[in-house]
Amino acid sequence: MGEAMRRFAALQSHLEEGVSLVAATRAADLPIPTAQRWLSRYRLEGLDGLKC
Question: Which key words are in the record (predicted)?
């Protein structure tokens, strides 16, 4: 799985199922600031924003 898809998978429940970002980050064992940064990049650039 590519880096962008791994990052998207961590955000997917928040984006597609309405799970809170806090709950999604806990499930993915991810710091909230990192998830917020990835979410912002995803909203601006789509999957391309999750590559870096």
Answer: DNA-binding, Homeobox
CA-CA distance, 30 to 15, in Å (whole number)?
Answer: 16
Task: Return the structure tokens found at 34.
Answer: 């990192």
Residue with tokens 């799970």: 19
Q: Give dist(CA 4, CA 49) in Å, integer.
A: 8
The tens-digit pLDDT sequence of the chain (52 residues) is 699 999 999 999 999 999 999 999 999 999 999 999 999 999 999 999 999 7
The span from the CA of 22 to the CA of 46, in Å, is 21
Please tell me whether residue 27 adopts helix, strand or coil conformation: helix
